[in-house]
Design goal:
The protein has 729 residues and is of the alpha/beta class. A hairpin with a 2-residue loop joins strand 3 (42-47) and strand 4 (50-61). The protein folds into six domains: 13-112, PriA, 3(prime) DNA-binding domain (GIY-YIG endonuclease); 119-177; 197-377, Rossmann fold; 388-429 and 494-626, 3-Layer(aba) Sandwich (Rossmann fold), CATH 3.40.50.300; 431-491, no CATH class; 637-723, Alpha-Beta Plaits, CATH 3.30.70.600. The protein has 19 helices and 31 strands. It is globular, with a radius of gyration of 29 Å. Strands 10-11-9-12-15-8-16 form a seven-stranded parallel beta sheet, sandwiched between helices. A six-stranded parallel beta sheet has the order 17-27-26-18-25-24, sandwiched between helices. It starts with 12 loop residues before the first strand and ends in a 6-residue tail after the last strand. It binds adenosine-5'-diphosphate (ADP). Adenosine-5'-diphosphate is lined by residues 193-196, 199, 222, 224-230, 381, 550.
Length: 729
């Protein structure tokens, strides 16, 4: 595509510049000879009245069409993007049926932050102050060696005003100091853990794969606590040892988890790895981006978006808790980081390790069919044994009406507390009650602009839409019929379970761990640390606390509603429930004597419940795989969703019909829809969905790209493609 308008017609060299915008392709600009541009360079280019950052995707000789081209304004003072990163960006965009600029925006995001300001130190120049005071003399005495401004004020016990005056008089001068880089090379002489035989065998196999220095995907499969982290640390060591430039990326699903893993990397390599996630302050993020691009950051531990960083020498990629649903980004550029990690490893020609105690069906199938190398770890490390999982049949001994903890679970909590140990009550539902109903007229309180029920939150006294964040104070009267004091709370959320636990165990120290009680990731880490130290007796938690943590004093996990995830019945409901309940049960008994998990269920005969109770993962997975195979669902077929949304329901209806009619005829592809989405109204936008299913051999991305190219999407309509959807709402 030609860049708009003109100013220099005598160019011979054209730079194809990709901008981080949702545009279909790169724009041509003239490349000034003296800039010496090469592919991958980051440049500033004009677009309309703006100057934007972009990347040079290609260079060619030519005249650029009828109109003279605008020129590249500058080459930026940043490391360029490596060729393989560019290839990955374009691959990811094509796979996700999105524009390459949208994928590039993921890579360049880290550059939007300012660089950290250089540190300064103050030092005495030898000049005398205009007027000597005791305070000023103290400052001068303390400033014989360079000190930070706050340190100096503190040492001399003076206010900042005194220091300011001395700086103005030239008695003190301010020097820029070079900070040591926060990204130090790893110390490869630090010892690793002494591995047990099963771990040692897995580590040896992994290290051999890493040293072979080509693409290979490995599934590291071992129960919670079997030592997968110890094993992949050895693989990281092998990668770093084999090549002085090698870089290693570890993806983790939860920020709260990163601290523990970071500490283990720090111990193993004598220096902290670079972190990449939402609580890294922006200037540090900028610095990290540059250190990754220059190769100085050798180990990066990050959230899913770290996958888009510009590594020049990526040699090992690790996706921990690979089954975790949060690897799927559902908004903006839609992608599944685990799948893209495998694609990136292929492009980089390096090893990718997918680690989990409950691997996704996709990865298991790839392992079973030989596409991935399958390394299995034996039991828990050392004396720790797997928790005993029991079902509580709620039909036999239900709780009192309005209560949620059965007599059996309550008794188990009491025993645990009596032994001085900790219990975790798990309920994957925020707030106090998921539904508020008027007992006079039967009205269920809904969000005004969305199709979702309002969730009651008692801490804040508000009714909240978990979809959009809309909230309102709980009204005194029903907004529908006006009856007073008629609103009742239906069902439990974690706040309600806390209320019940408080009533039953008034002496116990309780903590609720959910996104409402944790202001930010630091608060989350602090609560996890308190739990580890045994400062709570009972933690009531949503899934944020289910993953990865080691709570040494925890010996009982009670699942308040085991059936919760099975309702709604999407493709992965059973798989996800199995994974989540296994993970949460796995928090128990990691250090002390055997722990136990008790799952309250109304459907003890459901295959998921039976498999959990019997510890029969393989049996459950075999049945689940057979069911998917019978109906060609992933991993045996491909699936994509197309979501159309608009504030104008008539236009939406018309366009949905037009779009349906434009569907190409693809062999082995079935298109279902349009249907009203289960969430038919979100933030005032009406939503319709198509589901597209195909054989595994079909290039579904190309099919969808061709389909979309057949229509012109009107301005009021948003069309989103979700390859391999995880949400069907
Ligand atoms: P996973 O990642 O499989 O859940 P971890 O690697 O976190 O397991 O190990 C669980 C616990 O056991 C951790 O506290 C870890 O430090 C400890 N552990 C595992 N393997 C060893 C080992 N070989 N030597 C010492 N401690 C180990």
């Amino acid at each position: 595509m030609t860049s708009p308008s003109n100013n220099d017609s005598s160019v011979a060299r054209i730079a194809e510049v990709l901008l981080p915008l949702p545009l279909p392709e790169a724009f041509d600009y003239s490349a000034p000879e003296d800039m010496g541009l090469t592919v991958g360079d980051l440049v500033a280019v004009p677009l309309g009245p703006r100057t934007l950052r972009g990347v040079v995707l290609g260079l060619r000789e030519g005249r650029g069409g009828n109109r003279p081209l605008k020129a590249v304004e500058a080459r930026l003072d940043e490391p360029g993007l490596p060729a393989r990163t560019l290839e990955f960006i374009q691959w990811a965009a094509r796979y996700s049926v999105d524009s390459p600029g949208a994928a590039l925006a993921m890579t360049l995001r880290g550059l939007n932050a300012p660089r950290p300001r250089p540190e300064r130190r103050l030092v005495a120049t030898g000049k005398a102050p205009t007027r000597a005071t005791v305070e000023r003399s103290r400052v001068i005495a303390a400033a014989t060696q360079p000190r930070s401004r706050t340190e100096l004020a503190h040492l001399a016990a003076v206010s900042d005003g005194v220091i300011k005056a001395l700086l103005e008089q030239g008695v003190l001068e301010s020097l820029k100091v070079e900070r040591p880089s926060p990204f130090q090379p790893p110390d490869l002489s630090c010892p690793g853990a002494e591995l047990n035989p099963s771990q040692a065998a897995a580590a040896e196999a992994l290290c051999a794969v890493v040293r072979a220095d080509h693409f290979e995907a490995v599934l590291l499969d071992g129960v919670t606590g079997s030592g997968k982290t110890e094993v992949y640390l050895e693989a990281a060591a092998a990668a770093l040892q084999a090549d002085d430039l090698a870089q290693v990326l570890v993806l983790l699903p939860e920020i709260a988890l990163t601290q523990a893993v970071i500490d283990r990397f720090t111990t193993r390599f004598g220096t902290a790895p670079a972190e990449w996630h939402s609580i890294v302050p922006p200037p540090r993020r900028r610095e990290t981006w540059e250190a990754v691009a220059s190769g100085a950051a050798r180990i990066v531990v990050g959230a899913r978006s770290a996958l888009f960083l510009p590594f020049p020498h990526l040699k090992l990629l690790i996706v921990d808790e690979e089954h975790d649903g949060s690897y799927k980004q559902e908004e903006g550029f839609i992608y599944q980081a685990r799948d893209l990690a495998v694609a990136r490893a292929k492009i980089e020609g390096c090893t990718v390790i997918l680690a989990s105690a409950t691997p996704s069906l996709e990865s298991l199938w790839n392992a079973q069919s030989g596409r991935y190398r399958w390394l299995r770890l034996g039991d828990r490390h050392g004396a720790a044994v797997m928790p005993d999982i029991g079902l509580i049949d709620m039909r036999e001994a239900p709780p009192q009406p309005g209560q949620w903890l059965s007599p059996r679970l309550t008794a188990a909590v009491a025993e645990t507390l009596a032994r001085g140990e900790q219990a975790l009550l798990f309920l994957n539902r925020r707030g106090y009650a998921p539904l508020v109903l008027c007992k006079a007229c039967g009205e269920r309180l809904k969000s005004p602009d969305s199709d979702s029920w309002l969730v009651e939150h008692r801490y804040s006294g508000r009714l909240v839409c978990h979809l959009t964040g809309f909230s309102m104070a709980k009204p005194a009267a029903c907004p529908h019929c006006g009856a007073r004091d008629s609103l009742i709370s239906i069902g439990p959320g974690v706040e309600r379970v806390e209320e019940e636990a408080q009533l039953r165990f008034p002496q116990a120290r309780l903590a609720v761990f959910s996104s409402d009680t944790i202001a930010d990731a630091n608060a989350g880490r602090a609560m996890i640390a308190s739990m580890e130290r045994g400062e709570f007796d009972i933690m009531i938690a949503t899934q944020a606390a289910a993953k990865g943590h080691n709570f040494p004093h925890l010996t009982l996990v009670g699942v308040v509603d085991g059936d919760l995830g099975l309702r709604g019945g999407d493709l992965r409901a059973a798989e996800r429930t199995y994974q989540l309940l296994t993970q949460v049960s796995g928090r128990a008994g990691r250090h002390l004597h055997a722990g136990r998990a008790l799952i309250q269920t109304w459907t003890p005969d459901h295959p998921v419940m039976k498999a959990l109770a019997a510890g029969d993962r393989d049996g459950f997975l075999a049945v689940e795989l057979a069911e998917r195979q019978a109906v060609r669902l992933p991993p045996f077929g491909r699936l994509a969703a197309v979501i159309l949304s608009s504030p104008d329901s008539t236009r939406l209806q018309e366009f949905a019909r037009e779009f349906a009619a434009a569907a190409p005829n693809g062999a082995g592809v079935s298109v279902y829809g349009p249907a009203d989405a289960p969430l038919a109204l979100v933030r005032g936008f009406r939503r319709k969905r198509f589901l597209v299913q195909s054989d595994k051999a079909v290039d579904l991305s190309s099919f969808l790209a061709a389909w979309r190219a057949r229509v012109r999407v009107p301005g009021q309509i948003r069309l989103t493609v979700d390859m391999d959807p995880y949400s069907f709402l």
